[in-house]
Write a structure and sequence with these properties.
Its main location: membrane. The protein has one helix spanning about 60-65, and strands spanning about 5, 30-35, 45, 50-55, 70-80, 85, 95, 95-105, 110, 115, 120-125, 130-135, 140-150, 155, 160-170, 185-190, 200, 205-215, 220-225, 230, 235, 240, 250, 255, 260-265, 270, 275-280, 285, 295, 300-305, 310, 320, 320-325, 330, 340-345. By secondary structure, it is mainly β.
């Protein structure tokens, strides 16, 4: 049996190429303060807590006023080229949103006593930043490090217990340091870090929202060998992928633009939404021998060397959505497909 082209309703083939956009203008609680060369930052402080509705800090004098704060609350933006470094030696907790953005001068951020990010810490668009020290961090709700082309040194606590949302995009990092020890990940997006060649999560068993590993080093080796289930999983542009215990993906599983020759997900039994395998120049074989049900669409396209699907899906029984298979497919064998929508052209 040979299929030159198979079409289905619509194929979602979009990857994740960049991190979330940083938004630093939110509704203030009561006052808005801009701290520049001719103005002072205002805050309401109780002992060691510094609370702001919304403030922007643009010079070292204003930043100095934060050095005694153990807790920062509210929306705080640090921006500009009048800093060589940011050093907050007393800071223990970020309860609000702290954004460090748009600086060509800052080379280091030292938050080495910070233990908890209950709000959000964003560092973005910093061309000279080399080092971020979070060596005491134990708990993080939202950490986003984006567009930092010189950022090569992330100092993290090896005992980091929880990270809710993590985005790491467009950096010079060579490894993920303390970000790989979790048993569970809520949301992690690691993309466009061209020096990262090893992505290994030796303890990871579950992903409750999404794990996105996209367009890091083309030869990156990804090992997810303890991962049993994920809400959504995206793997793009890697040299090797291993997920030997993966049983279920409750949402979408996307594997695309990779450089490996074989894709073995032989333990996978269930995909709740769509299964997408596309844009491979070297892929010659796929193994989904335990897969029984797909709750959405099945899409296989633009895999130029993938010709034989004879034993790719021997257990597949249910495909709730549409099926799209394009390419020079010589053999395709499926025992039973129920609830199947297919359009052959």
């Amino acid at each position: 049996m040979k299929f030159n082209f198979v079409t289905l309703l619509a194929i979602l083939a979009s990857g994740v190429f960049a991190a979330d956009e940083t938004n630093t203008t939110t509704t203030a609680r009561s006052t808005t303060t801009t701290t520049g060369s001719n103005s002072k930052s205002t805050s309401t402080s109780s002992t060691d807590t510094c609370s702001f509705s919304r403030t922007t800090i643009t010079n070292a004098t204003a930043l100095q006023q934060l050095t005694s704060c153990e807790t920062l609350d509210g929306e705080i933006t640090i921006s500009g080229n009048e800093f060589a470094s940011i050093d907050l030696p007393q800071l223990r907790e970020i309860a609000g949103d702290v954004t460090v953005i748009n600086s060509k001068s800052i080379v280091a951020i030292n938050l080495n006593q910070l233990r908890s990010i209950d709000g959000k810490l964003t560092v973005t668009n910093m061309t000279q930043l080399n080092t971020i020290d979070l060596s005491s961090l134990r708990n993080s709700q939202d950490l986003e490090l984006v567009s930092l082309p010189s950022f090569a040194n992330l100092v993290l606590n090896r005992e980091l217990e929880r990270a809710g949302k993590v985005i790491l995009s467009d950096t010079a990092l060579t490894n993920l340091n303390g970000l790989t020890s979790f048993n569970n990940i809520q949301y992690m997006n690691i993309n466009n870090n061209k020096n990262i060649t090893q992505i290994q999560f030796p303890n990871l068993r579950s992903v409750t929202d999404a794990l996105i590993l996209s367009f890091n080093n083309d030869d990156a080796v990804v090992e997810l060998n303890d991962l049993e289930w994920a809400a959504n999983l995206t793997v793009q542009s890697v040299g090797q992928l291993s997920a030997s215990e993966l049983r279920a993906v409750n949402g979408t599983l996307q594997v695309s633009y990779n450089l490996f020759e074989s894709l073995n997900l032989s333990t996978l039994t269930y995909v709740g939404s769509s299964l997408q395998v596309f844009a491979h120049d070297e892929l010659t074989s796929i193994d989904f021998k335990s897969l029984r049900e797909i709750g959405g669409e099945l899409s296989l396209f633009n895999n130029s060397e993938l010709h034989d699907l004879q034993n790719a899906f021997p257990s597949l029984e249910v495909v709730e959505g549409a099926v799209a298979i394009s390419g020079d497919i010589a053999n395709l064998s499926i025992i039973v497909w129920k609830k199947l929508k297919v359009i052959f052209n």
